[in-house]
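Each record in this resource describes a single protein on a pair of labelled lines. An example record follows, reproduced without changes.
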Amino acid sequence: MKNVSRDLTLAFLALAAVFSPKQCPAQWVPPATLRDIPIFDDCSKTRHGIGLSIQPSLIYPHGAIFMCSERERAIDARHAGASRFFLVHEYGHLAMNSRDEAIADEWAAKQLAAVPAEQGTLRAAILHFIEQGTFFDPRYGSGFDRALRVARAAGIRTNEWPQPLVDYANAQQRAQSNGASLALRVTGGDANAAEMVILFDHEPIGVLSDLDGMKPLNLPQLAPGHHLIQATQIWLYRVEQSGAKSEIARGLQAACSFESTGKNAVALDLRFDGDAVSIAPVELR
C-alpha cells in the first residue's frame, strides 16, 4: 500500500491553510481534528469502489481512508474533479462517526461549499450522480437521489442545477402534493422484502421499499387511463423474525401497464420465483 504521496500532499495543504497570509486555502483541507488520518491507495481494499473509511481502532488510532486511484481516474475522465468529492465524503464518515452514507454526502457537500475554489468539484460530482440516474444502491439511494442531496446540502441555487435534476426534483414535489401513493407488497417465494427505483410513465419518481417497514412512495396525479410502471435496480431480501437480513438478488427489472380509475392508493404486488421477478399494480381506494 502506498500512501506517502497522499500524506505529503495533505500535509502540504494543511500547512498552507495554517500559514497562508490570507487564511484562504485554494482547496479544501480537512479540519485539524482529521489531519492525522492516513490515506492509502488500495483498490483491493475498496473492492475497486472509489473509497472506504475505517473508524479509529488499535491498528488505525485515528481511523483510515482507502481510495482507489484506478476508479478516481475513471470518474475524473468523465467529470473532471468529481473524484475529490468522494475523498471528502470518506472524511465525513470519520468526522461524524457514522456509517450513514447520506450523512457523509451532506457533510462533504457543506464542507466543499464553504470553499469557493471547490465549486467545480461539487458540480462535477452532481453531474456524475446524474449520469448514474436511476442506478440504485440501498446504502445511497439512486444517482438522482445523491445529486439532489448534494445540491441541497451545498446550498446550490435551483436555477444552477442541471435540467435533469430540476425535472427529478419537480416530479418529487408534484408527487408529494397530490396525495397519491404506491405501496409495495412482496408475495410468495423466498423474498419477503425489496427495494427498487420506480419510474412512472417513464419518469423516475423515487425509491420504493418495505425493507424496514412499509414506506409508501408518492405518485404523480393518477389521472384515469393507461399508465406504465417500471421497477429498476430491484434488490430482494429475506428478513427473519429476528431482524436478520440476507440478500437474495439484486439488479433486477420489471414493468407493467395498468388502467387507472383515478384512485389515489395503489399497491404494487411483487413476486420472485427464483428466475424472474414480476410486478402487478392493484388499486386500493
